């Protein structure tokens, strides 16, 4: 491996502040927004659907502009980073790896991320590129800045449909991290197990995997957990197995998957 490219939200950056600020802006309890985000995650929907449940028809981009105009726009600082980010990125660099941070986000988010002065060679967001995940153009840009061939470029992310599957479809290697709601909920889904070159519970596992023997699927033990309800994919059909596109509001959505309700996501990366 020559280049490691990191997703941002819930891979490097905790989304607590992001969702809390939306809750405050909309005047609803923070837990309400978090719970609705969880519902969207479990249904394989875009998590901004949580906002549209509260404000039907809401244009999230426009609302973001209104927040910024009111002086309540996006913000993040060192306290929003997961604690392993800075040391692990630095350690990976000492292994001679090129480090890129490239995730979905606004240009403002890009400015805020670069202000953190992370140990990375490049920090960029989807709005700055004009291409967002899971579109192939985003991963084409990833490969442009990688400086390495696809099979020597690893994309690390928490979201199966936005990170893992499109990265693999673009020929990259991919690691899934069990972090944040998408990461925890979907970690043991058979499609994730099958697609991921590596599955990790923390960034701290990466240096040994990448600087060591390079063994594949080191943590990809078979899952004992039933797959969350997701539209079944005929054998042989490629990705978009987990619906990622913003969908209609959940009036007509199916209820929570029974099997998932019976056996909620395990609390951490360890498996029996
Ligand atoms: Mg993410």
TrEMBL record:
InterPro entries: HAD-like_sf (IPR036412), HAD-SF_hydro_IA (IPR006439), HAD_sf (IPR023214), S-2-haloacid_dehalogenase (IPR051540)
Signal peptide range in chain numbering: none
Compositionally biased residues, Low complexity: 219-229
Record key words, sorted: Hydrolase
Classification via Pfam families: Hydrolase
Single annotated GO MF: hydrolase activity
Region feature (Disordered): 217-272
Keyword Hydrolase among record annotations: yes
Name of protein: HAD-superfamily hydrolase, subfamily IA, variant 1
Species annotation: Streptomyces pratensis (strain ATCC 33331 / IAF-45CD)
